[in-house]
Automatic annotation (TrEMBL):
Residues 21-96 form the Carboxymuconolactone decarboxylase-like domain. PANTHER family: 4-CARBOXYMUCONOLACTONE DECARBOXYLASE FAMILY PROTEIN (AFU_ORTHOLOGUE AFUA_6G11590), BLL7811 PROTEIN. It comes from the Bacteria. Pfam families: CMD. InterPro entries: AhpD-like, AhpD_core, CMD-like. This is Carboxymuconolactone decarboxylase family protein. NCBIfam families: ahpD_dom.
Length: 161
């Protein structure tokens, strides 16, 4: 499978990608626990069917020390025992925030209450932006058919500035 277009080979796309990366960097530097970042991004990417993003977030999480068991169970987090209540709240928010078109209510009050119970305001802000950004990245990957399998951890760390 070949991508429809190489977004990193286009000058305008590279400018936009740097801004996108800088927003992501601000989220990474937030007080939201790092384990939550990759779990949330992996789950949204699975739902959206973005092969590149699933590859990216699986490998980044593994490189950061996430266990294979937890990575394999993200797709079935409700039916597993390896996630904390706080992680479950974040995964639920990620799912509801990703499936907006599938649900008449968007993010439920129950899910929001669970998120408020486990995270402070800055962490919630980071989590909301994280869900929005990963969904945007997923859409980019799916639209241009960017395949998974070639990502190497740390590949994009030089994009900032």
């Amino acid at each position: 499978m070949e991508p429809r277009i190489d977004l990193m080979a286009n000058e305008l796309s590279t400018k936009i990608a740097k801004r996108f990366y800088n927003v992501s960097l601000a989220i990474q530097q937030s007080p939201l626990p790092k384990a939550i970042h990759e779990l949330v991004m992996l789950r949204a990417s699975q739902i959206n069917g973005c092969g590149f993003c699933v590859d990216f977030h699986t490998k980044e999480a593994a490189a950061a020390g996430e266990t294979a068991v937890r990575l394999h169970l993200v797709a079935a987090w409700r039916e597993s025992t390896v996630f904390t209540k706080a992680e479950r709240a974040a995964l639920e928010l990620a799912e509801e925030g990703t499936r907006l078109a599938d649900a008449h209510h968007g993010v439920s009050d129950e899910t929001w209450a669970q998120v408020r119970k486990h995270y402070d305001e800055d962490q919630i802000v980071a989590l909301v932006y994280l869900v929005a950004m990963v969904n945007a990245a997923n859409r980019l990957g799916v639209i241009v058919r960017n395949p998974g399998g070639s990502y190497e951890p740390g590949m994009f760390t030089s994009m900032s500035s």
